[in-house]
């Protein structure tokens, strides 16, 4: 009787485990929803707004950081130094999901000037993640 009961409990536990597993597309959607819901709490110098947009069919997430910086060469050069540091901090704090990247999701990340032109852009995929973590 005990053996049969433990088999039933094991079967139920296995069924629950399998149904609770999410595929990459579901994780991508969940990440974007969570990121955008917490974007109001994001505090970083010169960043006034951040948003995420998911592209399920392309396995891609676009992160945008809107700043109060003007589009000029000085700010562009500064962004090329500051922006990678911000991304590293976000990866270490799991604000950019290493799990999704290792599952093949690409992050296209934009650091935008106050007129929405691109100051800096970074594409984070498996190879870039490994390079950033070195």
UniProtKB/TrEMBL annotation:
The family database entries (PROSITE patterns) matched by this protein are listed as: PROKAR_LIPOPROTEIN
Keyword field: Signal
The organism's place on the tree of life at top rank: Bacteria
Q: Which residues form the signal peptide?
A: 1-24
Q: Does the keyword Signal apply?
A: yes
Q: By what name is this protein known?
A: Lipoprotein
Per the UniProt record, the source organism is Flavobacterium geliluteum
């Amino acid at each position: 009787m005990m053996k049969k009961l433990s088999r039933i409990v094991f079967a139920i536990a296995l069924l629950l485990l399998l149904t609770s597993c999410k595929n990459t597309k579901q994780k991508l959607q969940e990440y974007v929803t969570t990121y955008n819901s917490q974007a109001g709490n994001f505090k970083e110098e010169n960043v006034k707004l951040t948003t995420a947009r998911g592209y399920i069919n392309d396995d891609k997430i676009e992160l945008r950081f809107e700043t109060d910086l003007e589009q000029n060469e000085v700010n562009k050069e500064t962004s090329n130094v500051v922006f990678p540091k911000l991304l590293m901090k976000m990866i270490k704090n799991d604000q950019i999901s290493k799990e999704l990247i290792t599952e093949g999701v690409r992050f296209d990340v934009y650091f935008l000037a106050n007129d929405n032109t691109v100051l800096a852009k970074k594409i984070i995929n498996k190879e870039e993640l490994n390079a950033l973590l070195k």
